[in-house]
DNA sequence: GAGTACCT
DNA sequence: AGGG
């Protein structure tokens, strides 16, 4: 597993982990996901207030939020279709960085317009909290804020750029985190084929791979 | 098992 | 910073 920069125990930043070719490949993979599973606007539990971020998913399960609450489900909430397969680049990054044998089951794709934000929150809807969450960034840079295990713990922010990977695991698995703001220009989406017609310059895209359920028990060790 | 991926 |  590659070193990266430990921001806290279990919270590891890998700046520029995806090279230009991998970023282009991932963009093409995201374009395919969006074609099969269009971005939609999630809503807050109970109040139904819309998020500023748009979302879609890939993998056997996807994270969704609406007035009924947060949950993982196998189908797109609007089309009813199963989520498309996990992008190969996400699986490759997981194998290299997650330190977890079983593959991810969900890849949440967050699409941030120039004004989009994500308030401080915990990723705690997964039953398997021993697996890390792996984040990959594309497009415009953004200010990522992270704190501690309590909402009131002090927080810091770092800049995430296109190609950065971030592993959120171990003692940091349940830290509060969010996106303060997307930064203007600077990094545009790499020109790649096929382009992402739904993603104008100035947008940021984040993919988070998650293990939702504990892996089924493997072979039992032989007794002496 | 609160809530709070939101808002003031 | 903190709400109910």
Automatic annotation (TrEMBL):
InterPro entries: Alkb, AlkB-like, AlkB-like_sf, Oxoglu/Fe-dep_dioxygenase_dom. Binds 1 Fe(2+) ion per subunit. Residues 103-213 form the Fe2OG dioxygenase domain. Its cofactor is Fe(2+). The keyword Oxidoreductase applies. Keywords: Dioxygenase, Iron, Metal-binding, Oxidoreductase. 2-oxoglutarate binds at residues 110-112, 204-210. It holds the Pfam family 2OG-FeII_Oxy_2. GO terms for cellular component: cytoplasm. One of its GO terms (biological process) is oxidative RNA demethylation. Substrate binds at residues 63, 70-72, 125, 151. The keyword Metal-binding applies. Fe cation binds at residues 121, 123, 177. GO terms for molecular function: broad specificity oxidative DNA demethylase activity; ferrous iron binding; oxidative RNA demethylase activity. PANTHER family: ALKYLATED DNA REPAIR PROTEIN ALKB-RELATED, NUCLEIC ACID DIOXYGENASE ALKBH1. This is Alkylated DNA repair dioxygenase. It comes from Methylobacterium radiodurans. The lineage of its organism: Bacteria, Pseudomonadati, Pseudomonadota, Alphaproteobacteria, Hyphomicrobiales.
